[in-house]
Amino acid sequence: MHSMSLSPVAMQKLAHPDGEIATVKGISSFRTIMILSSFASTRLEEVALAAQKSSIHLWMQIYIFDNRTLTTTLIRRAEMSGFKGIVITADSPVDGTVTCDGKNQIFSVEGKLLANFDSFNLKYSSSAVFQDIVYLRRLTKLPIIIKGLLTAEDAIRAMLAGASAILVSNHGGRQIDGDQAAIEALPGVVNAVKKLFPLRDLYMDSGVRSGQDVFKAIALGAKMVFIGRPIIWGLALGGSKGVNNVMNILRNEFNETMLLSGASNVNEIKKDNVISKVSIWGVNSFGIPQQLIHEYEDILRGI
Asked: Could you name the domain of life of the organism this protein comes from (predicted)?
């Protein structure tokens, strides 16, 4: 599988008339993963059909809604359409205020572009807890990836509840202005999780703008790096060809950075390839948050 994959981005027809279908076509030559937003502007079944003859693996992103039937129905539709994973966005019990959305009058068209729902009367569950992962684990045999965690403590709780993998993310900085950067949070999460769950995967998105950024995230422990905005920029400028161009640019930048750093393949990328400062959030670049060490001292001593 490719080191770079696609983060969920809602309503892609706002960027290009062909929306998610153009994105699928643009990455069809790559062996990669596309996470489809539950707020896509194309029905998930149509996206699955478009990806059928490619090497793309589709994962379905969902929220835990107040109306659990909506969540369950999306999972069932994704299973029937051949999706390979379920991505739960865990960092949005409510919508953060995005000033530019109001300026761009996005709310005047939002409901018209939500292809996977019959109505726009959608409300996230503000009381969702880690126990909901246990419920979802019983609901589907597909891998469950939890997206939006930034602390080692939350990541461990998610793993204990049955998560297959963690996608370290701050929602592209779109929920809380000034939130911790995902790349800052990544090393602490990796260190803690890998000690307790060495076989489970960790991914990262948010703030990735170049192949060099992909390299840094992999060096700090991400198995795969997911990309959002750059793909949409390519989609807006050139449809499927624009998406393909962006993927090629990122791949070439990544390969160049890897070779110039003395690594001949992804497996040779090490944390020593990057120099990182101590985070203001109390996480040493290659350590575990001090608070977590205290809370999980007995566990950590025993491994």
From this structure: Eukaryota
